[in-house]
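Table S2 (continued). Query chain:
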Amino acid sequence: MLPLDQLHDLVEPTPGKIVLFVLDGLGGLPRPDTGRSELETARLPHLDALAARGICGLIDPVSPGITPGSGPAHLALFGYDPVRYQIGRGVLSALGIGFPMGPNDVAARMNFATLDADGHITDRRAGRISTETNRALVEKLRTIRLPAVEVFVETESQHRAVLVLRGEGLSDRVADTDPQRVGVPPEPARALAPEAERTAELVRAFVAQAGELLRDDRPANALLLRGFADLPDIPRFPDVYGMRSAAIAVYPMYRGLARLLGMDVLDPGPTVADELALLRERWDAYDFFYVHVKAPDLKGEDGDFDGKVAVLEEIDQQVPTLVALGPEALAVTGDHSTPALLRGHSWHAVPFVLVARTAFADEVRAFDERAALRGGLGRFSALHVMPLLLAHAGKLTKYGA
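Corresponding output:
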């Protein structure tokens, strides 16, 4: 892919509108008893119709064999090399809830979690406690004091919260305390560089005090931290692509990434129908819309195959609303795969369909992993998604003489 500055030089304004519809954790794996993935099992008449109208393929969010986090996977979809632009989860969570991060801040994403009597993790998400319970626990944690820094603890949603440390000389080069598996104790906060020793010590002190405060709170009797990050310097999406750009997303992290990139973050209701109603309402105000749906990823992480099938079918019922708006270029894909079989993100390539007046339809007739293997786009890097959308919306001029 061309570097962002060179791609910017090719961009020209046109009336055509672009929609990137991202179904989080879209891809899956076959269930052993049926040999069919979640997408292959679900009844998806509207998504299948899109596949038949458009051109399909499979995308690798980072590179083959690499399991991506949601941040890098989304950056790639937006055309930012996730190896060059590394953004920690903490800053995305903080910006996602509207926390005003400054130049002396380091943020981390927190999970409330459950530890057994031996100090081993039994549930990394504390049973997905309610947001109301989260707020009560956050009030406890706000009593923690650390030397020479300000401490901010904020609710994100359900089991998720945000820790922000503010002070001189802090570093985000601190290792996660979340081992991202159960049956083991949390990791200690470790400095990944000499300049981070003091920050790691502060984090360890925070975790120790939090452990005392949460000792008797079950299922949320512990904290896991990951994605330590400060505020990065990154090109603004509207400036790179010359488009009025909007994000429609419910979950804070994705709102945070969009806000970091300079998109306008719109406020939908909690359902897919609400998101698409807002898309229709604001259709004339923007050139580019990023619409994010979290539900498939949640069901995949819970290992709920049937639940993931059900939410895919619910999403499918809303697709006609999207199609009726008539975007010049429409892409439907995921940021990564979250197979229920694996109960987490995976390295598997993600189905992709592009519908546009200038796109040759291929022979694919179903929106699923196996069908996408036969698609006309083949298997390609997510970094090529934005150039494809721009080209099919008539927004890229010729490269070179």
